[in-house]
Amino acid sequence: MNSVYCVFPGGKFKALTLSYDDNSPESNRRLMEIFRKYGIKATFFLNSGLYPYDDDRWEIKRMYEGFEVACHTRTHPTIARCPVTEVIDQILGDRKALEAAVGYPVRGLSYPNRSMSPEITALLPLTGIRYAREGETTGNFGLPQDLLHWKGTCHHNQNLLEKADEFISLFKWQYLYLFYVWGHTVQSQYRRS
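Below the sequence we write its predicted structure tokens.
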């Protein structure tokens, strides 16, 4: 009797995913050059209200072609401290602006300043958001149990090479392993440690 297993594209049982937020267009451009050179895909969470869309250097559709663009709110506030109407405006406004720029549905969010609450998470599906990345890490390679509370495996400054060696050594094809690395290409003025 044949068994049926869910797999990643190409029949793979392991996948790597990368996501970056709080970055300048210039720092993202440098990172994307490296990713393109090695055929690496990534998601970039952007703040539509922090960069001028009519400026020639900020041509989002062309610049981010081949990568996913997702929300990080319009202006990066600590949204758990905002009134609910402002939270909706920050997320929905960012999503609409980014969709207008890239020409496809934007469905992801990275919580700015790691700020969230049960009320905010409950609002996300109403704003068209289907998954949201937290700023916490798990240290493991399991698939997320709740896509609105997606935790990465590690931050890129957090034992990345050791985690990569561990990931490479995984061999049980009966399981699906996801190595989710997240980070910032530059130290942002908005990021607080």
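The helical segments are 25-38, 60-63, 84-102, 118-123, 160-169.
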